[in-house]
């Protein structure tokens, strides 16, 4: 074989091998850039976005605030029956707004930065692998191993076989081939749409949901207020909620009537009133609610005369829908006090945690 022919064969091997590497790099780079951008975006929102940078209670307040703003009764019912699901929907919607409406430029430059970072890493890996093979007189196998090792923290670079490419000697040429190929890949990636994030394995809303919703979701057996403990399983500590709701919010009625109960749990537990537990078919004084069964026993409800204005507004505003939904009435013992109608929407949206007597 003439020298010229050997050179051609070697180089065509390097061209093919380079193309194979670039093909693999393309798929794994897009994945890595999207995953990294999802993590970065979630981290950014966790720091700068008021609903996500505080404690659990803060997030709950933002969920309630957004429910009041939207005035969608069905979403309220989701919140009451499955607060976690409504909270997840809130996180998902806010992340979408952040990325695609309010902070698009920031998201695009994050994506761009991650493309640049990948480019730097690939160049570094090319340089390191080529240098090692040259100084140690290694072969393609050694080159590939070294290249994969340098990149392993950045990319998942699937194992590939270098067996058919052992005739490659000019690794400088191989390096330049891959550099050239990868450069057109990163150029393509620079115009990657943010929509690509939706296909990524890691998604910013999912990351935030995993972080923010890993807490207790047990509901008050009377009013369905959700426990605000930040630990998922916090037994033997009691469940507790900072604010309880009028029992009607969860469909509570007086025994043997269709009269809604509009009392707050925190008032009831200080009163002489009893409640009927349908599960055990027995009445219990509210003062001894813990005796009514396991669901009651694990709750700490502290007597408190203050009532959250938010729920007064909600009950007043949605009384018709609540009546239809629970097939009960705000009449007789369940008549809504007229001053509940004085709480305005802007009161609850702007001062949604304000308590009134
Ligand atoms: Zn309650
Ligand atoms: Zn709890």
Task: Describe the 3D structure.
This protein is mostly helical. It has 2 domains: 3-209, no CATH class; 247-356, no CATH class. It is 55% helix and 3% strand. It contains 13 helices and 4 strands. It has helices spanning 3-48, 56-70, 73-81, 83-102, 104-136, 140-151, 171-190, 204-212, 265-268, 294-297, 309-317, 319-326, 345-350; strands spanning 274-277, 282-285, 307-308, 355-356. The strands form 2 sheets. Strands 1-2 form a two-stranded antiparallel sheet. Strands 3-4 form a two-stranded antiparallel ribbon. A hairpin with a 4-residue loop joins strand 1 and strand 2. Helix 1 crosses helix 8 (204-212). The longest helix has 46 residues, at 3-48. It is elongated, with a radius of gyration of 31 Å. The structure holds zinc ion (2 copies). One zinc ion binds at residues 216, 218, 227, 229, 234, 239.
């Amino acid at each position: 074989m003439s020298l010229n022919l050997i050179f051609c064969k070697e180089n065509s091997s390097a061209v093919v091998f380079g193309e194979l590497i670039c093909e693999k790099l393309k798929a794994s780079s897009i994945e890595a850039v999207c995953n990294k951008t999802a993590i970065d975006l979630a981290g950014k929102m966790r720091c700068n976005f008021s609903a996500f940078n505080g404690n659990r209670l803060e997030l709950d307040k933002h969920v309630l605030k957004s429910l009041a703003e939207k005035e969608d009764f069905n979403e309220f019912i989701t919140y009451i029956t499955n607060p976690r699901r409504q909270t997840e929907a809130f996180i998902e919607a806010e992340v979408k707004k952040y990325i695609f409406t309010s902070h698009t430029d920031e998201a695009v430059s994050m994506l761009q930065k991650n493309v640049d970072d990948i480019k730097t890493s690939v160049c570094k890996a090319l340089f390191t692998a080529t240098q090692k093979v040259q100084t140690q007189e290694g072969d393609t196998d050694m080159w590939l191993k070294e290249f994969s090792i340098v990149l392993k923290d950045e990319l998942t670079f699937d194992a590939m076989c270098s067996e058919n490419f052992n005739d490659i000697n000019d690794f400088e040429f191989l390096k330049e081939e891959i550099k050239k190929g990868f450069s057109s890949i990163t150029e393509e990636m620079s115009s990657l749409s943010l929509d690509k994030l939706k296909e990524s394995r890691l998604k910013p809303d999912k990351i935030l949901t995993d972080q923010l919703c890993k807490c207790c979701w047990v509901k008050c057996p009377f009013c369905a207020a959700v426990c605000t403990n930040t630990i998922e399983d916090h037994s033997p500590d009691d469940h507790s909620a900072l604010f309880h709701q009028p029992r009607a919010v969860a469909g509570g009625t007086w025994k043997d009537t269709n009269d809604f109960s509009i009392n707050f749990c925190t008032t009831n537990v200080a009163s002489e009133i009893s409640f009927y537990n349908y599960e055990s078919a027995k009445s219990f004084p509210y003062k001894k609610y813990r005796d009514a069964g396991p669901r009651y026993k694990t709750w700490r409800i502290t007597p408190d005369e203050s009532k959250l204005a938010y729920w007064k507004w909600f009950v007043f505003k949605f009384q018709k829908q609540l009546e239809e939904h629970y097939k009960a009435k705000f009449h007789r013992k369940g008549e809504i006090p007229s001053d509940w109608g004085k709480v305005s929407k802007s009161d609850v949206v702007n001062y949604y945690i304000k308590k009134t007597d």
